[in-house]
Structure formats: C-alpha cells, structure tokens
Amino acid sequence: MRLSTIVSGVKKDNFETRKQPILPCHKASDLPNMEFGWSSTGKEVVDLFKDRVAGKTFLITGPTPGGVGAESAKSLATADPKHLILAGRTLSKIQPLIDDLSSTHPNVKVSFIQLDLANLKSVREAAENVKVVLAGDKIDVVILNAAIMACPYALTADGVESQFATNHLGHFLLGNLLLRDGLVGSRVVVVSSLASQRKADFLMPGLKDLTYDHGKTYDPFAAYSLSKACNVLYAKRLAKMLEPKRISTFSLNPGSILTNLQGYITAEMRNRAVEEFLKENPGVAIPERKSLQQGCATQLRAALDPSLKGNSGAYLDDCQVNETMEHKDAEAFMDEVWTLSEKLVGEKFVF
Hints:
The chain is of the alpha/beta class. 40% of the residues lie in helices and 14% in strands. The longest helix has 23 residues, at 220-242.
C-alpha cells in the first residue's frame, strides 16, 4: 500500500511484526482449492477466475510500470481478456507496459487513454475518449488505482489540494461519468490504503478547507489519509446507489509494496507518520513488505471473485473483507463527502 509502506520502514524491534496467515475465503469444487491471504499473488487469483477475465474489458487508472496497476494488467493479460484500457497522465510512462503486453499477449487489445486526475477537464475528456475506444462495448471492471502520496503542498487548477484531487476527486468524477453513461457492466474497484484507517474526528475536519489555509496547516500524510478515507466512503456510497443495477463496488488496501509512489517520503517523514498512526491504532502490527504480484492480488480478487457479490461496499485487506472501526465511524461523513465532491466537480449524479 501506501501507509503500510510507511509503517514497514520503522525498525521492527520496536513493534511486533505482523504475522501473515492465509485465511480461507473462496474455494471452488471444480478447481484446485485456493485460499486467499497475505501471500496470495495476482496470477493465482487470475488463474482461479479465468472465466471472469476471458473476453472481458478492464479499465485501470495509473498503470505505471513498477506499480500494482501495471502488475494487475499483466496478470489479467494471461487469461485472454478482450480489452485492457490503460488510463494515465503520460503515454511515455505507460508505453513500456503497452509494449510488454503487445509482445507477450498480442491477441489482447490494449488502449491508452490520457488522464490527468488532478484536472477535471482532463477527466471529462478521458471519459469521452473511453466511449470512443469502447466502440459500443462496456467496461466489465473499472479499477481506480492511480494515486500520489505525501507530496509537497500544491493546489490544482480547480483550486483543490493535489492529493485530494488526484486520489479521490478525479476518480469520483471519472467513475461517476462512466456509470452515468452506462459504460460499466459489473464492478468498480477503488484502491485505498491502510492510511485510510485513521480516526474520523482527526481526518474529516480537513473537508472544511481543502486548501489547508493556503498551505499553512498542510500535513502531507494527513492529507493523503483523508483522500484514502474518501476512497473507502466513495465505494460504500456507490454500493448503496448501484444495488438496483447489480454493479458491485469495493475498496481495498493493497499492502506494503515498494513502488515509485513513495518518491517524496524521507525517513524522518516516514517515522513521524508511523508514530502518529500508532498512537491512534495501538497494537497495530507492522505489515511485511509484499512483492508486486502479492500487492495486486487484493484488487484482483475484488475485481473478479463472484463470491464477493453479496459484500458490495466492503473494504478488503490481504485479500479478505476487513471492516474496521475507523471506517465504520467515518460512514457518518459519507453523505458529506459525496455532496462536497459533487459541488467541487459541478455536477450531481443519480444512477
């Protein structure tokens, strides 16, 4: 993940190391028994649900090589999907993944969509361009994966703090535009973070001023945590709204994975963030580092496993449904987050 990546940088002799059991969840009688947990890989998940991938269309935001989004795309490509739509800010950064997929899986259609989540105009243009590449088809699964983390203070052209804009607001608008236009067939998966598991009375006051008094009160990790908590609340609110349409939504923590997402984080920043997090969550164990294959497993289970259908709106961690007290408390702010997000994008959504 994302804050669990921070946690893993703390000296382990100061805290108990998290043990990683493989918890049983999905077994199929007509397939080899499969148990999902911390050590599960994306390839294992895809292998079990090949029928949920073959001939299907997937959209993934932020599939930069070396990240879990790209790893998800590579895992999905092994099971003969019809179409992988890769949405990113810069083609040159995604091109190595496109080249890899085209070389190893030439029968899979791969499309690139230019998408700057920090710019609402770009998000709207991306949604229109998705219609073009779909050519009348639907997206079976949308994976809202892109993120920035603990970056220096900046406001977007729309006047919103950049982490909130990129991690939550841009995805809120993109997901809702695709849903409003009837382009999503089955699932919406929102990649959140362990950082979302902070106390609501600490995080949610940040909604009152998304400029952070023009940077004077800006805390990069608190802002990141707020954006990731809003990811969870977005998935929960969507689940309620989309129930009649039988479209499921999930949020998740991918785990502690070393990627370029942590480019702004110094050792001092990491340790301070961990200390603050552990004060709010005494007894939390340090997540062990995952490989990219392990890191993409949770979002792929959320995207593919039919047994999760009755858990729409749930948050997953280590491939398991994990409803936390922090998220339950934050649900009191779910409608406020939705209404504020509609106000910021200038549009109301009813599905």
